[in-house]
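tool_call: predict_structure(chain=1)
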Amino acid sequence: MPLARLAPLLVATAFALGSATAHAGTSLQAQVDDVIEPMMREHGIAGMAVAVFANGQAHYFSYGVASKATAEPVNADTLFEIGSLSKTYTATLAALASAEGKLDLQAPARRYQPALAGTPLGDASVLELGAYSADCLPLQFPDDVQTDSQALDFLRNWKPRSVHGTQRCYSNPSLGLFGDLAARARQQPFAELMSQGLLPQMGLQHTYLHVLHVPANAQGLYAQGYDAQNRPVRVNPGPYADEAYGIKTSARDLLRYVRLHMQPAELPPALRKAAAITQAGYFQVGAMTQGLGWERYPLPVSLDTLVDGNGPRLIREPQATHRLDPPLPAVPDAWYNKTGSTGGFGAYAAFIPAEGKAIILLANRNYPNEARVRAATGFCPALASERHPRERIVGQDVVHKNIHYKTVDAVHRPCA
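tool_result:
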């Protein structure tokens, strides 16, 4: 079924996955197949790993190959680069430092990086850097910035383009500096804090920060990525790569990570607080509320809104932003998500705490974010072109915020 026919829908009901029975699992497999297989053909994706958490159970679905050269099939433990989805890990590390009283998110950057003293960027707060709102820093460092010292020189010489906290410009340098400041506040290298601290604390045994940190016994699980010309490619580390886009992980580990953000009760107290800090709302950017790493949308939310929020406009263009003071607390009744890409990989994660539902998409090709969002919301037939108060969904009994939703043009069979 063409992905275009999945729109429009109300995402508030997109994860009504039915009871966790063997029959339901079979039906879910068919529904995921119906979405993923044509999408892979359309975008020339060699392999994908999909994970869904619902009704207290994890479901894993694997497609295609991890490498065209070896024809090794993808499985739930295949390692994928997740690109900017790594930013949520960096945000969690920074939030943990804040929860433990080691990092003041409102402090100016110069407190933790004295080399920025006397510069406009040094006056920006740690929080503003983490929310891409310190100033309109570029999406990437220029090509001639290759080392950490060159990156610091670039940031020291940055000329202001906006008033702090008024413009959101999605930026690897901004988020990278944010992670670096968090590590400096802890007086430990970022890679050490992540690999020996946060990842094991969250029970992530098959998640790695840098290609050199993937042990020999896991190298065989590392998928081969493919660029737009189907050439084999893997991430090329640059300044702040670890902080901004360095994580490699599996569907199994990533689903655990997302589930713990969604259901943090089993985490130690400081990490529970850190999860809430990442999911709080610090700036309003149109329909999207910017957290630290995570971006959130109150339910119900339309597919068009999610597609736009994850599309090129919010990634490549400056957006007016409104500071939320005090910050909005984390809320369960919202759609949290983050995309991530490298030259040869594409990732997407989304979760709804109030419904205990999450979805992971990992692919060894960079394909459009729109397709990822449509796929993530396409695993169930709870689709509608309009909302009607006090009416029920056709074939489903789905109620959200005391509002009932009615299917006008359902395009999938009912969930089992």
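agent: The CA atoms of residues 46 and 68 lie 7 Å apart. Proceeding to next step.
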